[in-house]
């Protein structure tokens, strides 16, 4: 890839991206492309820079150097007022984006739509579709404390896809789940990807790599490792 050119085919593109916190490099000169419709695993140990990279893709962090493009839009040049529009196209499941404990499942999933001023009728329809897609429509009136760990994560995914995003980012989405539930959540991401959504899952769990069998991008100490051969 010509690292100085913006790819017209890439859904996500990072060009020489670096980020430093307290003189420690979280990312160092990272350049990569993720194509439309790909399912990519972002692997690496804790502190490798995975979360920083994902947060940059939704405009929650800014690089110190380099440029980031999502659907051809330069995220690094967005004004603060433009970031919410980016997040309508990029769904995210982050460990610190938890469900609101005093709101029902359907109310939690509806939040991204409510802040956009979507009509109540459209909110009901889209929330129902999202909950059905992740298999927890029957939990719509329950509060988060009554959900199992797997159900909680499914609701978080429903909230991330309720806008119909073109990209779905997930940061350690199976970190607190047992192997059986991990498999269920990964299968759910595969279904979302099969519908055309570009999916990027950050994880340090090698078990997940065996479940996905797709392209792997590895970060070690903020540095991008060479791509291994994609499994057949």
Fill in the keyword field for this structure.
232 residues, alpha/beta, Rossmann fold, 6-stranded mixed sheet, 4-stranded antiparallel sheet, 7 helices, 26% strand
Count of DSSP strands = 10
In this structure, how is the largest beta sheet organized?
A: 6 strands, mixed
Report the average pLDDT across residues: 90
Q: Order of strands across the biggest sheet?
A: 6-7-8-3-9-10
Overall shape: it is globular
Helix and strand sequence: EEEHEEHEHHHEHEHEE
Name the poorly predicted regions. none
Please name the fourth-level CATH homologous superfamily: P-loop containing nucleotide triphosphate hydrolases
Distance between the termini: 23 Å
- Look up the CATH topology: Rossmann fold
What's the tally of helices? 7
- What share of the residues does DSSP label as strand, in percent? 25-35%
Radius of gyration from the alpha-carbon trace, in angstroms: 17 Å
Counting helices, strands and paired strands, the structural category is alpha/beta
Relative helix content: 25-40%
Second CATH tier, the architecture: 3-Layer(aba) Sandwich
The CATH top-level class label: Alpha Beta
């Amino acid at each position: 890839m010509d690292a100085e050119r913006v790819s017209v085919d890439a859904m996500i593109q990072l060009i020489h991206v670096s980020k430093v916190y307290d003189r420690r490099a979280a990312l160092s000169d990272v350049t990569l492309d993720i194509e439309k419709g790909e399912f990519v695993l972002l692997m690496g140990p804790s502190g490798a820079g995975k979360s920083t990279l994902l947060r940059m893709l939704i405009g929650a962090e800014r690089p110190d150097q380099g440029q980031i493009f999502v659907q051809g839009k330069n995220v690094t040049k967005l004004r603060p007022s433009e970031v919410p529009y980016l997040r309508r196209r990029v769904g995210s499941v982050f460990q610190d984006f938890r469900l609101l404990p005093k709101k029902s499942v359907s109310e939690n999933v509806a939040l991204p739509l409510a802040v956009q001023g979507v009509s109540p009728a459209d909110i009901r329809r889209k929330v129902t579709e999202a909950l059905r897609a992740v298999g927890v429509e029957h939990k719509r009136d329950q509060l988060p404390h009554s959900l199992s760990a797997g159900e909680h994560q499914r609701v978080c995914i429903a909230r991330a896809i309720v806008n119909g995003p073109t990209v779905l980012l997930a940061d350690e989405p199976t970190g607190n789940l047992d192997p059986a539930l991990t498999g269920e959540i990964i299968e759910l991401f595969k279904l979302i990807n099969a519908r055309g959504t570009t999916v990027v899952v950050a994880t340090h769990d090698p078990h997940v790599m065996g479940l996905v069998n797709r392209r792997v991008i590895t970060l070690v100490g903020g540095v991008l490792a060479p791509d291994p051969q994609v499994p057949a």
